[in-house]
Amino acid sequence: MNEQRIYVISDSVGETAELVIKAAVSQFKNVTVDVERFPYVNDIKSVEEIITAAKENQAMVVFTLVVPEIRETAVRLLETEGVPYVDIMGPVLTRMEDVFQSSPVYEPGLVHKLDEDYFKRVEAIEFAVKYDDGRDPRGILRADIVLIGVSRTSKTPLSQYLALKRLRVANVPIVPEVEPPEELFQVNPKKCFGLRISPEQLNHIRKERLKSLGLAADANYAQLDRIQEELNYFESIVQKIGCPVIDVSKRAVEETANIIIEQYYKNKRNF
Q1: Parts of the chain with a pLDDT under 70
Q2: Which of 36, 62, 186, 192 could form a disulfide bond with 243, CB atoms 3.0-4.6 angstroms apart?
Q3: Quick one: pLDDT at residue 23?
Q4: Which residues of 55-65 are buried (b: 16+ CB within 10 A; e: fewer)?
Q5: In this predicted structure, what is the pLDDT of residue 118?
Q6: How far, in Å, CA of 41 to CA of 81, rounded?
Q7: Among 195, 188, 187, which residue's Cα sits nearest to residue 156?
Q8: Which distant-in-sequence residues (6+ apart) come within 8 Å of 33 by Cβ?
Q9: 37: which residues sit within 8 A by CB, 6+ positions away?
Q10: How far apart are CA 14 and CA 16, in angstroms?
């Protein structure tokens, strides 16, 4: 298998270039890349050092540099040294300047400075991962939304989907043998959403899950009587909390998420 070293030079974090590289490499069979990122490069000396290293290590260079002086220096050095390269931002900026009849401000990192949603989304995704599956009940009181349900009711996919909408989500599994965390009964019930599912649907989902893991499909986990016991316990918990409940039996994650989002923002003024 052919492996190629690629150096990413950026005056910001460099993630744009890395995403482009990964998308492009996926189109090639039997090729792997070793990507090394050099972020926040904002002086010519650093550019010179990286290009020298790229030549020594036979690396390709991909860069996103918006400051003209630094970008032009990089191109000149790369061509002089015979290092293969791709300028991702340069041609786009030049073409847009012609079309828009306006000059760029040439300030690195503006996409993140201006896009506050980006940071909120990242924070929400990290939150969802940290407080997934009840691993830390302290997240319940900090969450925008708390999802409650038995195993295999799409709590984790829902948490991640809602996180992309910039909502901090904690989810809590309901199991008869485990007492729910006390924080669950302290949080505003309008922030909580119980995920109800039919026994038959859950039975099918759990059997398929066991098969995918190479386990016997008739395990207690997928037995209807066990499932009914869990669902009965779930109903007692959500009734005690007094939170809304959504039937997810025949709903896609996106559909359930839209219902939650609509109810959340409708109730938000009462939080």
Answers
A1: 1, 111-115, 269-271
A2: 192
A3: 92
A4: beeebbbbbbb
A5: 75
A6: 19
A7: 195
A8: 3, 4, 5, 6, 21, 25
A9: 8, 10, 14, 17, 18
A10: 6
How remote is the C-alpha of 226 from its chain's centroid? 34
51 Cβ partners below 8 Å, 6+ apart? 61, 74, 77, 78, 81, 83
Pairing of strands 31-38, 2-10: parallel
The structure tokens listed for 46 are 């650093």
> What are the DSSP E strand ranges found in 48-160?
60-64, 85-87, 145-149
Structure-token pair, residue 219? 């395990």
| Residue 126, token pair as written in the block | 């990290």
Q: Residue 63 and residue 177: Cα distance in Å, rounded? A: 55
Can you give the pLDDT at residue 14?
Answer: 86
Residue 3 has what pLDDT? Answer: 83
**Are 222 and 210 spatial neighbours (Cβ–Cβ below 8 Å)?**
yes
Q: What size, in residues, is the chain?
A: 271
Phi (first) and psi of residue 82, to 5 degrees: 70, 30
CA–CA dist 33, 50 (Å, integer): 18
pLDDT reported for residue 223: 96
pLDDT at res. 76 = 96
The amino acid occupying position 210 is L
User: C-alpha angle 142/145/148, rounded to 5°?
Assistant: 110
Name the amino acid, one letter, at 22: K
246 in Cβ contact with 198 (< 8 Å) = no
What pLDDT was estimated at residue 122?
87
| Residues with Cβ within 8 Å of residue 178, at least 6 apart in sequence | none
Residue by residue, DSSP assigns 27-56 as TSTTEEEEEEEE-S--SHHHHHHHHHHHHH
pLDDT at residue 107, as a whole number:
81
Two tokens, residue 249: 């039996």
